[in-house]
Specification:
CATH topology of the largest domain in chain A: AhpD-like
Protein name (chains A, B, C, D, E, F): 4-carboxymuconolactone decarboxylase
Strand content of chain A: under 5%
Distance between the termini of chain A: 61 Å
Structural class of chain A: mainly alpha
InterPro entries (chains A, B, C, D, E, F): 4CMD/NDH-1_regulator (IPR052512), AhpD-like (IPR029032), CMD-like (IPR003779)
Largest interface: A-F, 36 and 36 residues
Domain Carboxymuconolactone decarboxylase-like (chains A, B, C, D, E, F): 53-137
Order of helices and strands of chain A: HHHHHHH
Largest sheet of chain A: none
Low-confidence stretches of chain A: none
Oligomer: homohexamer
Region (Disordered) (chains A, B, C, D, E, F): 1-22
GO molecular function (chains A, B, C, D, E, F): peroxiredoxin activity
Number of domains of chain A: 2
Number of helices of chain A: 7
Chain lengths: 149, 149, 149, 149, 149, 149
């Protein structure tokens, strides 16, 4: 049992995110991110540099290096799961915007994206589905992909 | 503007769910449901018969007949979106159980289902991912699909 | 069981939203919407025309034609339920704004709306209740309905 | 500014929940609760006695004495808002059960309750609406109120 | 049992929020709020004056006077719980902004706040943690507290 | 850009969770978990062995090894954040049970835990606070810690 007030750190070694082993993990995640994201995520990550560099590190090293790159689902399948989650959570429009872009980058069509968000209406209601579709519309407009179908 | 206290019904015709047109919609949804569900949903629907037959009707007629059967996404893709939504919502374990069964029925492998729920951990946190994985485990055990991989 | 990769569509007939039967359903929903909404929803629906016309169709045909117009609750009662749901969900401020307008249109007083959102504080906490009340304030201000009471 | 580590308590007087003024507030809430609840809530409150008597006190004194008893909405209206909130939150089945009973006690009919939960499907999705309807079914069954309609 | 349509008010006395006893409760809460908030909350409360003065009253009288000032947790501990709740709820960025300021006011360091939000990523996912960290960044920037660490 | 249908894996190396480097990360997390958990988590992790060993690995390696062990917050502070998050999410009672035990293990008193959950009522409502307090009551009862205070 740890003494009250003590840091768990005192009993273990937490590797610095700048250590060689963590930099290797980070680079691995960054390669995945670059492959699927097409360039918008780095700006988000840079925005974290002066406040939460460890959070930025773990988004990349864990989220993309450890999880996203795993076999078992291809990127299009992962994006369908992610679109479902972000639509259901609500209030995650900035992340949904990034992931609509990523969905296009990995090969989901605008029709598939719209269909996923329309499908969501039955499971989490029209309001959240509408919020998500208007995020998709913004991204599609930027890329000259409107009208859909 | 409608007078206070008046039902909107007074101004429009709401078709009875037993009308021929609604029965046609219902039959269409039931065919989809039978194709993807493999038999567990009807029991849920029957459970609604003595309390909310209209809700049961619309789950089938709208949810499956109008939405699920649409082109644009195949059933495996729809299930990936649905697994993401139900994991993120939380507290929907009964529906998740139905949809893990449906996911297997439409051809998602146990590995793909597990991978989708593992992927979810990064987007809605470990607790909800763990709740979902234990629902999947129950279904997989019933079908003799453990261990996975 | 459907073959992997196949669309459920291949086994069933999904009516086009432009078919006569679906147009009838849509017109019915539109009549309800016009009666309760007072004119703000059509703009939202038009915004969907170039990206998700089917979602717009079903919001109207299902949400208003099939559900809202049902007997059992009058529009004022439906709006109280809706205000409760949208406040609790969070992140649905655009829809809440539409529904505060609708609530006024169907005859809820500003006092009743404020009281519903104040009541919500005990059930979903002050932060969500405050978010909702500031949406209501915006609508009331537009209509010259401040101060309340 | 308060010194780090200091309790705000040091700067103010927090009335004991057993003080005469707080007992007066509590009694007022208890009278409201008794009028609307029909007897199930006290058991919940007693269950809190050995762990969180202050929480029990405030549920009664604030939730019922300060909020529920306010003018502006009658109890049936308050219950419609509450049913909407608890359905949307999810995971609050024990509280929803109490509030379905309360809804019946204050005069909502089984049809109105079912209609409210059916209405909810469009705003927070079928899964949460189904969870809520099965809670209502349990309460209706206990009271011999099935089938509905 | 209360008659349908009757207000519970008819059976009980709801004290006016301007009554001496309620003003005493309000003043108590205001003293707590002033001690921990450092001045931003009053503007929010004033914003409620012309629409929901009772909600503003209860935020102060109940939220701060009855709950926040209780012994058992010091303000820094209360803020850690609050940061966790607001991050998890999502969509409560305005309240989170107030509570990041309050957290600094009661003595949490920028490092502790960032660490709490980084910790949250594992429990409610990266998207909500990122939303929260960007709220913190805005507050830290206003106070000249960047870079952190 | 990755070809449609391709796994990101094809472009990068995902370390097997049984690799030496991942086992080192896992052992580090396990040491933290053992220090704070007091023995209940391993059973949860074992339950994942035949379905999602990678998820179990990352809960330990990332959640405890990378995040929990970080300096900046001591374990009692981390538990306060976690209690807030799990109470607000709802539907995470199994995880909340684990974390009430962990909270006691790292030195939070029963009074502090109860106070955190009572505090939560104002921010996410009474229903979720009540759900959480009854989880705490179960754990306290098992450990002979009732009545509190």
């Amino acid at each position: 049992m740890i003494p009250a007030g003590a840091s768990v750190e005192s009993m273990t070694h937490v590797p610095d995110i700048n250590s060689p082993e963590e930099q290797t993990r980070y680079e691995r995640g960054l390669a995945v991110l670059a492959a699927v994201d097409g360039g918008s995520a780095p700006a988000v990550m840079e925005n974290l540099a002066d406040i939460a560099p460890a959070l930025a590190h773990h988004v990349v090293a864990f989220g993309f290096g450890d999880i996203y790159a795993r076999p078992g689902l291809d990127p299009k399948q992962r994006q369908l799961v992610t679109l479902g989650i972000l639509t259901a959570l609500g209030g995650c429009e900035p992340q949904l915007e990034v992931h609509v872009r990523t969905s296009l980058n990995v090969g989901l069509t605008t029709t598939e994206i719209v269909e996923a968000l329309t499908h969501a209406a039955g499971y989490c209601g029209f309001p959240k589905a509408l919020n998500a579709i208007f995020v998709a519309k913004k991204v599609f407009a930027e890329r000259g992909l409107l009208p859909v179908g």
